[in-house]
Amino acid sequence: CSAVAGIRRDSSTARQEEICKLRLADDASASGMSYEASMGGGGGGERRRSAFHIGYGGVVGASRRRLAQPELLARDVITHGSAQLRTLGRSIRTGAAMAAVFQEDLKNTSQKIFDPQDRILVRLNRSFLISCIISIAIDPMFFYGPRVREEQLPGEKNTNLCIGIDPGLAISTAVVRTLFDIFFLARIALQFRTAFIAPSSRVFGRGELVIDTVEIAKRYCRRFFIADVFSVLPLPQIVIWKFLYREDKTAVLETKDRLLFIIIAQYVPRLVRIYPLSTELKRTSGVFAETALAGAAYYLLWYMLASHIVGAFWYLLSIERVTDCWRFSCNEFPGCNQIYMYCGKTESNEEYTEWTTVIRQVITENCQPTDDGEMPFDYGMYSSAVTSAVTTSKDMTTKLLFCLWWGLANLSTLGQGLKTTI
């Protein structure tokens, strides 16, 4: 009887232990993970088993937990763990713990960081690209400032044929260029707040956006920051401002040479800054031009822009060639002062009077085309600029169209020559 009583006590104790363990397991399942251990005696032996139970979608209770398939749970754990390991590996390879999120999670962050594929930013980048192209077309307008014109000092009967700079054209060109440069400053500011796709995450399909402002600034400064800043420096505006506010405006040659050097130096970064804009537009929207007609107009615009630049350089060099002819004629007189070749004198003297009478007559005979069309001086490729009176024209539209036509014609000839050579 005592043995039977002991067996009953052992069985009741075992049942109570199983009930307590099931209650503990139900309470632990609410937190997402539980551990279950059950012991049973059979044939005098003990058996222990353990398992991890993960709750998904509010699955609570022992009955639903028993329906979960262990294979699916194990696969999910392995997938989540491998993703964490990949993220850790990318952080170790980059050498810095960059804050990175996916595109759909960027709006949930507290930082004011822009998505590179945002529609508003794409439209702004397209506007920035168009403004860069227009600014490239504005810079050659400084070359049309110098022209041959006549001026008359107070108290003088004769007029002086000299080379001066059109102040109205110089001021308007400087103002328009300044407005476009200010607009591009917004592009520079946006670059410090625009996320970029981590290079290490592009291998795994959908890339992660780096939203760390320090990493964004480092990346931009290493790539295009210097070129962007140098391209918007108001160096031509400073040269024009110094020339216009000088009392003696005879520094035409110095101003012309400075403008030529500065514009050529800034043309390189102003062209370089177009590359990241066009590349970013192609990467975000797929194509720059949405239609075939827009694409054809885009490339035609570049051809016209190249012709405009070539024509402006040709005009400036035509003025330089006219100056050479005047200089050679001036050297024939021992006391000739070449400073009177440039407009801007405010006082009259004997040298000025001699320049406006005898020397001007010699310059007209040696440098101006005759009535039958012959050129006493060899102007070379700039002869059409002298014979058509483009160098002395006040009509800016006529001058611009004539130089554009010259650029178009000679670009076609140059292209045919290169094609024949190749």
Describe the structure.
With 422 residues, this protein is mainly α. The chain is built from 14 helices and nine strands. The strands form four sheets. The protein has a three-stranded antiparallel β-sheet. Strands 1-4 form a two-stranded antiparallel sheet. It has a two-stranded antiparallel ribbon with strand order 2-3. A hairpin with an 8-residue loop joins strand 6 and strand 7. Helix 7 packs antiparallel against helix 9, helix 8 runs antiparallel to helix 9 and helix 11 crosses helix 12.
**What percentage of the residues does DSSP assign to strands (E)?**
5-15%
Secondary-structure element pattern, one letter each: HEEEEHHEHEEHEEHHHHHHHHH
Helix-and-strand structural type? mainly alpha
Computed CA radius of gyration, to the nearest angstrom? 40 Å
Low-pLDDT parts are 1-11, 26-68, 91-98
Q: Helix coverage percent of residues?
A: 55-70%
Choose one word for the global shape: elongated
According to DSSP, the number of beta strands is 9
**Biggest sheet: strand arrangement:** 5-9-8
Number of helices: 14
Termini gap: 116 Å
Main location: membrane
Membrane topology: Multi-pass membrane protein
InterPro entries: Ion_trans_dom
GO molecular function: monoatomic ion channel activity
Strand and helix layout:
Blueprint: H1 2-29, E1 33-35, E2 38-42, E3 45-49, E4 52-54, H2 62-67, H3 70-94, E5 100-101, H4 119-138, E6 146-151, E7 160-165, H5 167-191, E8 196-197, E9 209-210, H6 213-223, H7 225-231, H8 235-244, H9 252-272, H10 274-285, H11 292-330, H12 350-367, H13 383-387, H14 396-421
Antiparallel strand pairs: 1-4, 2-3, 5-9, 6-7, 8-9
Helix pairs in contact: 4-5, 4-10, 5-8, 7-9, 8-9, 11-12, 11-14
Subcellular location: Membrane
Pfam family, one: Ion_trans
Protein name: Ion transport domain-containing protein
